[in-house]
Amino acid sequence: MKTILLLLVSCFSLSIIAQDNLDTKYRMTSKQKQQLYKKGDGFIALIETYLDENNEALNSGKHISRLSDPSQYIEKAREKAKLYNICVDCYQKEYKTQLDLLASQDRARREKYEKEAFRRDSIFKEETKERNEKISKQFNSKERPYDRFIFAMDMLGEKNGVKHGNFTIFTNMDEELVRTRFSLYLQSVGFTYGDESKKINKLGFIQEYYVRKIAIDKEINDYIQVKYYYTVRNEYPSYYATTLDIDAPCWIVDKVVIDGTANTIINLYISYWAQSRKTIGSDKVGEIATHIFMGDNVSLQYISHNKYRIEITSKNMDYYSSYKILEKYNEL
Description:
Layout: H1 2-20, H2 30-38, H3 43-58, H4 71-77, H5 81-84, H6 88-138, H7 147-159, H8 175-188, E1 191-193, E2 200-202, E3 205-212, E4 223-233, H9 239-244, E5 250-260, H10 262-272, E6 286-293, E7 296-304, E8 307-314, H11 319-322, H12 325-331
Antiparallel strand pairs: 1-3, 2-3, 3-4, 4-5, 5-8, 6-7, 7-8
Helix pairs in contact: 1-6, 3-4, 3-6, 4-6
């Protein structure tokens, strides 16, 4: 800090010197400069023009890499110094002062950049440390059975531009966990639960119905209807059972069908699964685009003029083994 202060004081002092030199006696008047041009020696006046430009640049506060160099004119002016009664050494000294000031400004600027780089590096190291500590906690011996899977979904969601807690795969996973995370996503992009009569919970599937929180013009009829088809698997622990330490059967999702208005479903398809962005356009009934994400086969389908569907089917991936959900549950 002391070094930076000294440099700033030095720069300020040199700047004052450079500015004061504009008013020193050795500088020529406008009348004298006119006489020089008349006699063909206008190059001498250029010395002061260069020095004035340098002073202006140095005092502007902007970054400059080089100064206008009047040296060649200064040397030529020595031959006529007595004739015009000019102080060539004074010009030389002023230019030297300007060069010293430029060097001082460069040092101060470099110090500032190095300090900022050090600050950013420190912040990055601290954030990295916190992130590593968080990761470590995710994988310590006290982790809950679903913690590794949830952490993986949050990281994948981050890559897809979906905030933590809202991204999930759909099939071969606990229905309550999948439905909760996807519902949070729909609510984060402007949807809310719609007509209660359209929410169905029957053995074999669960249906939820969403509409826009705020609808404008054509959006007034937008809706999303989600059906989760599941199979009861007693050998797997359910998400809420492990969270609340209770015994409950696990409903494993086999298939998900998402129906809705055209723009709504297409936007969902290309935003939730970022890798699925591609040209979409068809008026033929059936599949018009498909995307495989981990164990999910995600199919975009044209149903009618203003009804599209996303159908998600399983590719038989065992997340309960790969993310050690069952193993961690047995350790509880």
